[in-house]
């Protein structure tokens, strides 16, 4: 699902063109002091009230309004040769009882991120592949993008593709004097244990969540009409780390170009914490799929101490996705000097 809009100046010439798909996951606090995640897409039917081509020192801005008071906005800057996106602001309305039926805080809440690197002027940015944009309590998967700002004469410029859409270099092979007439048969060699990553989440009071673990995803994928289980390790050096804490919960968000993993830990009877919820989004080009389990009861320990387990454990997220965790050490609240 994509929206397709044009913003015009006072001479009815198009200055901003945008066609893209946006899938959003919002984490919010409920009136029972727990947290929930809700996932929805920006629909194709939108309005652009508040958008502007820019004038009198004001930057051009694209504003997409939809649903019950929700909006997606991006402003633009330029120099002599390039233009860029500025602040990407996603605003959601927790008064929308369809999406947030039990929200504790009601009203408009905004979350800001960065989107769209430098693009040559008079060029159209095109990116079919998905890009994950993470900000406070909001994860966006943006795909099927065709966008240009500062358009000249109301016409689109030449297309510039994102790196993810560009073909991979063809590997070179050295000439061989021995001809081979057989094709190697793939083997189902077990994966090595994943590398242990160290992660932390902070709030105004300091570190509120500390985690160390190795992660391996096992999921069932459709290949040639058959469901085949596939495993891959999470590389902690390739993941961006984000998260939030409230009075009752802490969420760690790990993101790379193909995977988003959200771990939500919560207090239990005020004196203990546990792993309550895991959400996983798998991204393949412009397609994405999400799995979640909101009723977990794992990794329990007393507040002020950490949960530890060196053995391999399995976290069942859905019938077709399991996370194997290794060398887990995690603590929610009461963290002292990140130890």
From TrEMBL:
Topology in membrane: Single-pass type I membrane protein
UniProt keyword Transmembrane present: yes
Coiled coil region boundaries: none
TM region positions: none
Gene3D superfamilies recorded: 2.40.160.110
Gene Ontology cellular-component terms listed: endosome membrane; lysosomal membrane; plasma membrane
Domain of life: Eukaryota
Classification via PANTHER family: LYSOSOME-ASSOCIATED MEMBRANE GLYCOPROTEIN, LYSOSOME-ASSOCIATED MEMBRANE GLYCOPROTEIN 2
Protein's recorded name: Lysosome-associated membrane glycoprotein 2
Classification lineage: Eukaryota, Metazoa, Chordata, Craniata, Vertebrata
